[in-house]
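User: Some background: our group keeps a shared notebook of sequences we're curious about, and every so often someone picks one and asks for a predicted structure to add to the entry. Today it's my turn. The entry only has the sequence so far, pasted here. Could you supply the structure so I can complete it?
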Amino acid sequence: MGIHSDSALAQAHSLIAQAEPSKARALMEDAITSDLDNADLVFAIKSCKFWEPCMEDRGTLDSYEYGESLVNRWKQYQVIIDHEEAPSEKTLYAFKKGVFSLALESYQNASDGRNEELHAELCRKRGLCYKRLGSYEKALDCLAEACSLKELSAPLIAELADCYDLCGETVKAKLLFREAFFVDARKVNLDYLDSPLIQTVIQYVKKEGYAGTALQEWIPVYGVIIHVLDKKRELRAQELGRLKQEIFARENERKDPANDEALIKPRLMNLYFWLIDYYSATKDSLSKINEILLKIKLLDADIHKQYVG
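Assistant: Of course. Here's the predicted structure to add to the notebook entry:
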C-alpha cells in the first residue's frame, strides 16, 4: 500500500466514524486510481456505498425509527462481511463507531411517550449501542434498567449477560445466559451478542451442523456439555412446578408426528438438565436423577454419553 493510500484510508476512517461516508468515499476513490489492487480501499469504498443512503439521509423517519433502521442495516452489513475474504478491521471499527454513535443519538432523542414498555425498549437499544461502542458500564446501566421494567425477557437477559462477560464478570454472565435460554431460547437475538463466552458456544453448535431456530435451542444444551454455561441456581417451588408441567407437555408433543422433533428435542434436553440440577442441589433421591438420565439416554444417546462423561 502506498503512502497516499495509507493517508487516504486513515482520513476516510475518521470521516466514517463521524458518519460521513460520502466524503470518505470521495477521498478513497481518488487514491484508488493509482492503487487499483488495494483490497482495503476496495472494501472500504464498497462499504461506504452500502451505508451512504442510511447514514446520510434519514428521510421522514422519526428518531426511534431511524435508530431501528441503522441497527437493522448493521445486520445486513454483517452478511456482507461474512462473505468477504479478509475485511479490514480498521474499516469495520470505523463503521461500527459511526453507525452506533448515530443510532445512540437517535435513541436518546426518541420520546417514550411515558410508555413503560417503549421506555424499556429504548433503554435496551441504548445499551446495545453503548456496548458496540465499548462503553460497557453505561451499557450495563441501560440494560439493567430495561430488565427492571420488563420481567423475564429472554433477549434482554441474554444481552445483560453479554455485557457482564465483556466487563469481565464471567460468573454472572454464565448464570444469566443459562437463564435467558431457559426462559425462551428462540427469542434470544444472537445478532446482538458479542462476548467471547457465548460466541464460543454458538460457534461450537454451528460446527455440530445446526442453524436457525434449532441452533438457538441447542445452545443451552451444548453450553452445559462443553462446560461453558455451567453456573446453576436453585429453582423456587413455583418454578419447579412450571418446569415439570413443561416437561410433561413437551414429552406429549413428541408423540405427535406432526410436531417438529428437531426443535422439541433440544428444548426437552435443556429442561431435563435443569431438573437434574434441582434434584442434585436439594439432595433428592438418586432414583429420580437416574430416571431423568434414562430419559436423556433414550432421547439422545450421544448427548447422554457426553453429559455423564
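Suggested note for the entry: Residues 89-109 form the longest helix (21 residues). Residues 162 and 198 are 7 Å apart (CA to CA).
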